[in-house]
Amino acid sequence: MNSDCCCLPQDMHERYSVRKVSRQEADAFKWIESQKVGRDLGEVALQLWIQKHWWGFLRARLIEHLQGARYWTELDLEDFGLLQREFLDQQPLLNQIVALLLGGKDNLEVILWAHDCDKNVDLVLHMLERININARRLILEFNSALGVDAEQCWYVRK
Hints:
Blueprint: E1 15-16, H1 18-37, H2 43-67, E2 71-72, H3 82-86, H4 91-102, H5 107-116, H6 121-131, E3 139-142, E4 154-157
Parallel strand pairs: 1-2
Antiparallel strand pairs: 3-4
Helix pairs in contact: 1-2, 5-6
């Protein structure tokens, strides 16, 4: 790794775990949904959170990591702060693209937006290639059939 890369100074960035924070979010969702119906929904609520919220949650964590706002241990160190390093002079356009991605738009929708708004489509394509949102997906799995503690049933894999 070269010296101008994204090495994390110990005193500047706390490390976060996608697995741990996603489990906390899912547990909060489970509690809220259980309160609504007056009983513990258990694993059903956790599976529902995965179906409804996982990809949006992950996309937001990926963007934080790429922006250098938070270091997520399950994501690649080399990707940390990539957007700041590579597109420092293109922040207004980058911010618009990031907002679209965080809003759930896919690459094709961003490209169409760029075309319709007379943006530099070649630059937008280059940014999307570097962000590479679809290649940075992690799979969240919950398997209570393993017969272990519920926290250990929650894991993330590439």
